[in-house]
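We treat protein structure as text, and this decision shapes the records that our systems exchange. The remainder of this section carries one protein's record, kept here as part of the documentation:
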Amino acid sequence: MRPNTISGRFAVLTTMFVVLAELFILLPSLAGFRLDYLESRMERAQIASLAVLATDESIALDLESELLATAGVLNVVLRRDDVRQLVLSSPIPGPIIATYDLRTEGVLQTIDDSLAALADRQNRVIRVIGAPVNQAGQLIEITIETAPLRLAMIDYGLRLLAVSAAFSILTAVLLFLAAQRLILVPIRRVISHMSAYASAPEDVRHIIIPDARLAELREAESALQSMQQTVTSSLKQKERMAQLGQAVAKISHDLRNILTTAQIFADRLEDSADPAVRRAAPKLVKSITRAVNLCETTLAFGKAEEPAPTLSRFPLATLATEVIEAETLAGEAAGQVEFLTDIPPSLTIRADRDQLYRVLANLSRNARQAIEATGQPGTIEIGAGETEDDWWIKVCDSGPGLPDRAREYLFKPFTGSTRRGGTGLGLTIADDLVRGHGGRLDLLRSDDEGSQFCIHIPRGLAMGADANR
C-alpha cells in the first residue's frame, strides 16, 4: 500500500484522526482521574479525622501513622465553626510547592494541572483544599506527595490508551474496509472499463454501463458512458467517411474520363448550324469543364485538402449570373423561386473563379431546395460589396430557416444537413473553399423569415498574390 494511492492516503488520514481522537479522549480523562484521585484522598482523610474527633482522648502515634497511610496523606486539617484544627499530622519530607483548591478549579485549569503533574518526575509535596462530604465542616485540607499521584495517572493512562487504541484500530479497519468496498472497488471498475475501452474503442461491448450506488460515482460513470458513445460513434463515422472517400475517388476517376470525352463532343457544338445550339454550347462547355475540375480535386481529396486557390480578377456580377442561371434550370418547380442580385456591375474581385462558383452554387442550391420543400414561393438574393479590408458576398433567402441540429453542426460533414437525405457536404465544402482564400463563411441570421450567409474574402491575400506575379 503506497502513500501516493487512495488506499495509502486514506490509511494515513485514518491514523492521524485516530491519534487526534486519542488525545481528545486522553487529556480530559486524565484530568478527571486526577480530580477523582484527590477527592478520594480527601474523603479518606475526612473519615480518619472524624474517627479521631469521635474520641476524647489523644491517639497513639502508631495509630495516627496508620490512619494517615490508609488515607494516603501526610496531614489533615479541618475547619469547623470557623476554627481551623490540625487533626492528623506527620513529618513532611519537603516544602509545600503548590496549593490546589478543588472548589474553584475549571476544566482547562484541571487539564493543565494534570499535564504538569505528569511532566514533573520529582516527588514533591502539595496542599489540596476541598469541601468535606456530607457538610462535615467548612473545608478540609490535606497534604500529599506527588509521586503516587503521578504513578497512578500513568497506570490509568496506559490502560486507557490500550482500550481506546483497540477500539480505534477496530474502527479504522472497518472504515478502511468500507472505503475499499464502497469507493475504491467502484473506482477500480471504472479504471478497468477505461483501459478495456482504450484497447478497442470501436467495440461497443466495452462501453460502461452505470451501476454505482454512490451518486457521485454514478454521475462519473454516466459521463464516461456518454463520452465513450460519442467517441465510438465518431470513429465509426470517420471509418465510413474514409470508405466513402475511397469509393468517390474511384468513381471520380472513371467519371473524369467520361466527362473528358463529353467535353470533346461539346466543343464541336459551337460549329452547329442551329443558332440556339451555338448559344448553349459555351455554357455546356463551361459546365463540363467545372465537372472535370471537380473530379480532379476529388481525386486529390484523399491525399490533401482542397488545392490552393488560383487567383484571377473577374467581375463578380457575371459569376453570380451564371450561378443563378444554373440554379434556375435545376429548379423543380419553375417560377417558385425568384433569384435577385444586388451586385455593382463594376465590382471586380480577385479569387479562384471556379472555387467561388462552387461556394455560391452550394449556398444557392441549399436555399432553393429549402424553399421548394415548403411548397411556397420564395426569393434568393445574392448581394456584394467591398471595404478597405475585404470583399463581402451575402446570400439571403426567404426560406424556413435552419433547424437547430443544422445550426449546431453547421459546417460538419454528414451532420449539418438541412433536408432529409442530405449529406451536409455542401456547407462543409463551401467553408473549406472560403477558408482556403483566407476568409470566413458566417451565418448571420436564420429564423422563420429566412437565412443569411456572408462570405468575407480579405484583400490581403489578393494583394500578396499580385505582388508575387
About this structure: The first strand starts at residue 75 and ends at 80. The longest helix spans residues 146-199.
